[in-house]
UniProtKB/TrEMBL annotation:
SUPFAM superfamilies: Tetraspanin
Task of the protein: Structural component of specialized membrane microdomains known as tetraspanin-enriched microdomains (TERMs), which act as platforms for receptor clustering and signaling. Participates thereby in diverse biological functions such as cell signal transduction, adhesion, migration and protein trafficking. Regulates neuronal differentiation in response to NGF by facilitating NGF-mediated activation of NTRK1/TRKA receptor tyrosine kinase and subsequent downstream signaling pathways. Plays a role in the inhibition of TNFalpha-induced apoptosis.
Membrane topology label: Multi-pass membrane protein
Name of the gene: Tspan1
Taxonomic classification: Eukaryota, Metazoa, Chordata, Craniata, Vertebrata
GO CC terms, sorted: lysosomal membrane; plasma membrane
Main location: membrane
Spans traversing the lipid bilayer: 12-38, 58-79, 91-116, 214-238
Subunit structure: Interacts with SLC19A2. Interacts with NTRK1/TRKA.
Protein name: Tetraspanin
Gene3D superfamilies, A to Z: Tetraspanin
Pfam families: Tetraspanin
Length: 243
């Protein structure tokens, strides 16, 4: 009775593996499709989801992100689904390897994010602040994105209002962007200093800390799924080894 029970267990796990990876494959395909659609035809996407997305460039950036994630999910789904269905040790090992690499990359990213927050701030300040001083007010798309971000997140500049000093906007209007003065007019030096609106880096960091529980829960869930997927693929691999 034992071999048949074992065989039943093997078949059940194999079917679950196929269904799970088929769902991943379809999800990846959907994300890839949406990503390509947004890249090719961002305008109609904006018209449909206009209220949700604050600027064109953010949508374009999101589209590349969707294409990357979609492609990865397609590969994982295909390897897992086809590997389990065909009892292919090679594909199962490839599936295990890809998921393991992603798992390690996520853990590394989490560690880096925790350890190097201050370094990220320094790097961002070095890179973003000069661009703000050079482009804000001169480049319409860039200005629109920053305005949308500052209004949405209730922040001002990367660090604070001084990031806009010497920008084309300041040189022309002699005022700072309105979000730097909590939308009061005229947003001059005195009012901006009094308003003391936090920089966007700090504000986004606070948002992340506020939602850390949710983010952590989602991350833990994804990690658990990845570990389960690796365990199942290794189980199927080892069972095939014994056949």
């Amino acid at each position: 009775a034992l071999p048949s029970a074992k065989m039943g267990c093997f078949t059940f796990i194999k079917v679950m593996m196929i269904l799970f990876n088929l769902a991943i494959f379809l999800g990846g395909g959907t994300l890839l499709g949406v990503g390509i659609w947004v890249t090719v035809d961002g305008q109609s996407f904006l018209e449909i989801f206009g209220a949700l997305s604050s600027s064109v460039l953010q949508v374009v950036n999101v589209s590349y992100f969707l294409i990357a994630i979609g492609a990865i999910l397609l590969v994982i789904g295909f390897l897992g689904c086809y590997g389990a269905q065909k009892d292919s040790k090679c594909l199962l090992m490839m599936f295990f390897s890809v998921v393991l690499i992603i798992f390690i990359a996520e853990v590394a990213a989490a560690v880096v994010a925790l350890v190097y927050t201050s370094l990220a701030e320094t790097l961002l300040t070095a890179v973003v602040t000069p661009v703000l001083k050079e482009k804000y007010g001169a480049d319409d798309k860039f200005t629109h994105i920053w305005n949308a971000t500052m209004t949405e997140v209730h922040c001002c500049g990367l660090n604070n209002y001084t990031d806009f000093t010497d920008s084309p906007w300041y040189k022309e209007k002699r005022t700072y962007p309105e979000p730097c003065c909590k939308d009061l007019q005229p947003c001059n030096n005195t009012l901006a200093a009094e308003s003391d609106v936090p920089g966007c880096f700090y504000q986004i960091l606070e948002e992340i800390k506020t939602n850390a529980g949710v983010v952590g829960g989602v991350a833990a869930g994804i990690a658990a799924l990845e570990i389960a997927a690796m365990a199942v693929s290794m189980y199927l691999y080892c069972e095939l080894d014994q056949k």
